[in-house]
Amino acid sequence: MIGAGLMGAEIALVFALAGHDVLLNDRDQGALDRALARLRALMEKGVPRGFFTADQIEPTLARIHPTLDLADFHDRQIVTEAVFEAAELKTDLLARVASVVPEDCVIASNTSTIPISTLAAALPRERRGRFVGTHYFSPVSRMKLVEVIPWFNTSEETLEFTVALMKEIDKAPIRVKDVAGFAVNRMLHMFIIEAVKLVEEGVATPEDLDTACRLGLGHPIGPFALMDAVTSDLCVQAQEIMQEAYGERFRPPPLLKQRVRAGYSGGKGRPGWIAGRQA
Predict the structure, then answer these.
(1) Looking at the structure, do residues 169 and 40 belong to the same domain, yes or no?
(2) Domain end among 149, 175, 201
(3) Which of 97, 101, 111, 204 could cysteine-pair with 208, CB 3.0–4.6 Å?
(4) Quick check: is 147 catalytic?
């Protein structure tokens, strides 16, 4: 697992929960230490709620081995990158991974918006058939869905291996065509964009729209609480990628960009749509 942020660390966790030996890589030791501390806290908090059992904690965390050296990936069966959603960063990492992993290793990307074919160009031609997208959803420890995205050179063997592995770690994989934003993010961001426009027009408040989505549409979380959790700057970034691919329908609303520039992006310790109204 490359990238020890919120997504990467929890992807490592679900593999470890399923009994797999996992290497977790990041750029500095501090990021790895924080990731392991977050995972321990996550599991401990989840015990009384029934998400984990107390006897799972130590064996599971013991299967996650932090490393700063990509050369340690020389014996892996699958390597997944989950770093910042920037094509240049991802392609650089993928090229470096391809130079150290075994020939039969599957290389996967957790990108949420960048076409898999775009990232595949960073790999040597002989590696491209073993490259696939695996888009997990946050929080990974609880969300079952994984979009499995083959590009036009992904081998059927790689696709079958990946789908079977997702089921083994207790995920529900769906096969999605390789397009910008894939399936879920295309639907989600049209929804988010319209929700922000309703606030811009003064139709309803973020709190009331979240209530409407929970109680009227049966959603477990409203769009504004969701943006506060995943951060509005990540939403803007995803919408700009899809705007480039699909045009004006995905242009980020002015209010969303204005709040990001003002520092109201949400995320841990930062005001967002809900907390920001009280800041």
Answers:
(1) yes
(2) 175
(3) 204
(4) yes
Q: For 154-186, how does the pLDDT look when each residue is reduced to its tens digit (9 = 90+)?
A: 999 999 999 999 999 999 999 999 999 999 999
Terminal CA-CA length for the chain: 37
pTM, 2 dp: 0.91
Catalytic residue among 185, 189, 232, 265: 185
Q: What is the CATH number of the domain that holds 130?
A: 3.40.50.720
Structural domain span for residue 254: 184-272
112 catalytically annotated: yes
Q: What share of the chain has pLDDT > 90, as a percent?
A: 93
pLDDT digits (tens, 9 = 90+) for 44-58: 999 999 999 999 999
H/E segment holding residue 245: helix 232-246
Domain-embedded: residue 278: no
The answer on 229 and 168 residing in a single domain is no
Query: Catalytic pick from 109, 112, 117, 265?
Result: 112
Closest to 188 measured CA to CA, from 135, 262, 267, 133: 135
Same domain, residue pair 126 and 243: no
Number of domains in the chain: 2
How far CA 183 is from CA of 11, 136, 189, in Å, comes to 20, 12, 10
- pLDDT for res 275: 63
CA distance 82 to 34: 16
